Amino acid sequence: MSTEVECGQPGCCDANPAEAPIVGDIRRALAALDPTHVSVVDVSDGCGSKLQLVVVSAAFEGKPLLAQHRLVNTALKDHLTTVHAFTLKTYTPTKWAKVNV
């Protein structure tokens, strides 16, 4: 699985993962979907209250977008209580290969 972790503060997540603990929590929770790619971008300047997520998983194959998002929301239900807002994009590996050229 490839994983991107970014936040609003340069080097924050790489230098000190404790500054954005929600990012690691989300990655671990999404492991249940066996993703091939996860991108978690903290757009709240490092506090973890606003996130952009991209999740690529074969678990989404044959499922409509709403069902894909429900899978992610279910996996993250215990972690979203501290998140003010998040955007979510889900892809199957085939669709990801087409959009991530």
TrEMBL record:
Top-level taxon: Eukaryota
Instruction: Quote the InterPro entries the UniProt record gives.
Output: BOL2 (IPR045115), BolA (IPR002634), BolA-like_sf (IPR036065)
Pfam short name (any one): BolA
Q: State a single Gene Ontology molecular function.
A: 2 iron, 2 sulfur cluster binding
GO biological process, alphabetically ordered: intracellular iron ion homeostasis; protein maturation
Q: Which GO terms describe its cellular component?
A: cytosol; nucleus
* PANTHER family from the UniProt entry: BOLA-LIKE PROTEIN 2, BOLA-LIKE PROTEIN-RELATED
Q: Which family is it part of?
A: Belongs to the BolA/IbaG family.
Output this protein's name. Answer: BolA-like protein
Species whose genome carries this gene? Chrysophaeum taylorii
